[in-house]
Structure formats: C-alpha cells, structure tokens
Amino acid sequence: MTVLLVDDEPDICLLLKAILERAGCDCTLAHSLAEADRKFARGEYDGAVVDIDLPDGRGTTFIAEVRRKKPSMRVVAISAINAESDSALSAGADSFLAKPLGREAILDAIGLASDDNHADHRP
After folding, report:
1. Cα 62 to Cα 22, 59, 69, 113, 121, distances in angstroms
2. Which among 114, 85, 116 is positioned nearest to 23, based on CA atoms?
3. Neighbours of 90 (CB within 10 A)
4. Torsion sign (Cα): 12, 16, 22, 25
C-alpha cells in the first residue's frame, strides 16, 4: 500500500511514516497543500492521511480533490481539533482521527489489520 502523508508538523509525519512502514506501507511526505497537490498529481497512492489545518489552507480542500479524482482511495483526516470531524467527513474523508494519534487507531483508519507481531499487513 502506498500512502501520502500530509501534515505540516515533521514529527507527526515521521510518527505516521514509522508506524505505516512497519506495517508494510510505502510512504511519501508532504508538508503543505501545494506539496500534496504536486505529489498526488505525480504518484499513485492507495491512501492518504491528511491534516485539516495546514499553513497554506484547509486539508478538506485536498480531501475533496482526492475524492473527485480517485474515489476509491482511502483518506484519513487528522486534527488536534475534534470539531473538525464533521467538515473532514463531509469533504469525503473515510475516517477522522484526533491528535494525539495512537498506533492502533492509525492502522485501523488506513485499513490495515494489526497484531502484536507487527508483521506485514498488506490488504
């Protein structure tokens, strides 16, 4: 599974990348909407994890674009603000996770099973 991770906080991106790569995903990082748009246009992704509050706009804009261009792609919205859940889901996110993020919640939201052995869990 290839996943685009979009968050302006490098530590969040590195956390997500470490968890998802350990589960067998290939991850690409983007730290702004503009960077996410460029990488999405050039790559083939099975999923995305998108922060709602980015320095150059709202992640809901990117979520809606992904939903229009690739409806089958799994999209997880993340935010430190729980009230963002409704706007993220309305934009087309499959699920919403509140920060701080936990390993099990991340794997479940992106559609990967998990177990105590941390084996490769490609769907």
Report:
1. 26, 5, 11, 26, 27
2. 114
3. 11
4. negative
Q: Tens digits of per-residue pLDDT, 59-74?
A: 999 999 999 999 999 9
Return the H-helix or E-strand segment holding 45.
none
Give start and end residues of each alpha helix (H) in the chain: 10-22, 33-42, 59-69, 85-91, 103-110
Distance CA 57, CA 21 (A): 27
- Spatial contact of 63 and 93, defined as CB atoms under 8 Å apart: yes
- Mean pLDDT calculated for residue range 22-29: 97
Q: Write the class of the CATH domain 2-110.
A: alpha beta
Q: Comparing C-alpha atoms, which of 56, 57, 76, 80 is closest to residue 66? A: 76
pTM: 0.86
Residue 115 · residue 107 · CB < 8 Å:
no
